[in-house]
């Protein structure tokens, strides 16, 4: 069987291929071998698969697909790929197809009063943002702000959802340039006509400079913070006053005044070793914290002993870090150049990245692994773009350029959406992304 694709040469050499997929019906095509032009690239291959699907399902609507040969995504013509990889075209070539990873819907932007500097999409029930106006905000969906977190006296630089599993009260943390962290509780199921103003139940003081990053322990009973004072502090998240003093604050009420107790917590321990600003921290495992710094290093810390277990130096100021991918062990980091670097600490004796992605054109501000896929992650940049990556190819799967200025933060939401914020004072949601 022969099928023509979108090719510029009628006399192009043909090769025998068989299309296979792990997708379920109605995405399956017959596995019969067919002859196709060798100069087809991804778009031409996608056109052929759609024609095969239309032959099976008459009402089939055209979709975009990606293609893998021997586990690697094809990002050039078949002929070029086979030549580059030393694969023979004399035998029937098996090509796996998957749904292309690209957003299919852009929600209405959610406006803020200043730069959107931080975002956490780890809860499927809401999105948490931090803003340079000193306020945190809770968004149930695009354009629907349900809670405003009020109390910081300077820009919020980082936010973290601590516990969102319970049906009742949710706990979150914010870090600010005012040198403090704050802990908040609210009911995520509340949906008011106007956002509810929330005050923190605990203020965490101890850093001597701006707090740049906060991350929660998986159990939710502690958070860690990285600061411009070069230290990482560990804090308890309980709302008792056993580890701090209770102070009284004024709580806003209409036509009346009320007193609300608010505790001040102190750090339970400090991790010392970085020589410049600690720009990003993550706490992916119970006993291990990872940090990135402007001193060009990524460090792994033993929480119990406070010891620095390993250092990776990359020669660049680092702005962001995340741990995930295969075995939840790969370290992704970005900083003061356009390169997103990924290390595998399980490979001893080398500090060289196992992957480097270089399609951005300016500083990288955030990177985040997908929580269900070992291949996929995103990055945001001062170039105004968010890029979606797959470890099986060096080119971005998709480029989101909905922001009008620098992108300062980005995260996954609900597994099939990307949320991002930036200098344009907008929270953007790009949804209906198909991640295998």
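^ Assign residues to that structure.
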């Amino acid at each position: 069987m022969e099928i023509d694709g979108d090719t510029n040469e009628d006399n192009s050499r043909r090769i025998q291929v068989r299309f296979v997929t792990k997708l379920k019906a109605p995405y399956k095509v017959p596995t019969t071998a067919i002859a196709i032009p060798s100069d087809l690239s991804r778009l031409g291959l996608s056109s052929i698969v759609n024609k095969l699907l239309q032959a099976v399902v008459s009402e089939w609507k055209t979709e975009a697909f990606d293609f893998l040969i021997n586990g690697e995504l094809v990002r050039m013509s078949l002929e070029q790929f086979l030549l580059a990889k030393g694969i023979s075209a004399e035998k029937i070539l098996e090509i796996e197809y998957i749904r292309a990873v690209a957003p299919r819907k852009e929600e209405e932007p959610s406006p803020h009063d200043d730069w959107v500097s931080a975002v956490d999409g780890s809860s499927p029930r809401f999105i948490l943002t931090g803003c340079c106006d000193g306020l945190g905000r809770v968004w149930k969906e695009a354009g629907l702000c349900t809670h405003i977190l009020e109390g910081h006296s300077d820009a919020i630089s980082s936010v973290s959802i601590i516990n969102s599993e319970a049906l009742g009260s949710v706990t979150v943390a914010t870090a600010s340039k005012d040198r403090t962290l704050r802990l908040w509780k609210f009911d995520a199921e509340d949906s008011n006509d106007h956002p509810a103003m929330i005050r923190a139940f605990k203020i965490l003081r101890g850093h001597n400079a701006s707090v740049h990053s906060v991350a929660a322990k998986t159990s939710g009973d502690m958070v860690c913070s990285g600061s411009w004072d070069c230290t990482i502090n560990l804090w308890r998240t309980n709302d008792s006053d056993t580890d701090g003093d209770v102070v009284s604050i004024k709580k806003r009420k209409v036509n009346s005044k009320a007193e609300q107790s608010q505790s001040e917590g102190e750090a339970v321990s400090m991790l010392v070793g970085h020589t410049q600003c600690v720009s990003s921290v993550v706490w992916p495992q119970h006993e291990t914290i990872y940090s990135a710094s402007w001193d060009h290093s990524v460090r792994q810390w033993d929480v119990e002993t406070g010891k620095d277990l390993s250092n990776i130096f990359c020669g660049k100021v680092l702005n962001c870090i995340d741990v995930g991918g295969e075995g939840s062990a790969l370290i992704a980091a970005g900083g003061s150049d356009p390169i997103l670097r990924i290390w595998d600490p399980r490979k001893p004796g080398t500090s060289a990245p196992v992957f480097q992605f270089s399609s951005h054109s300016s500083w990288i501000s955030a990177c985040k692994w997908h929580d269900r896929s070992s291949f996929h992650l995103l990055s945001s940049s001062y170039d105004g773009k968010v890029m979606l990556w797959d470890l099986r190819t060096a080119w971005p799967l998709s480029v989101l350029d909905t922001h009008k200025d620098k992108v300062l933060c980005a995260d996954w939401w609900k597994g099939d959406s990307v949320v991002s914020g930036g200098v344009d004072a907008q929270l953007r949601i790009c949804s209906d992304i198909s991640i295998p």
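The longest helix spans residues 42-56.
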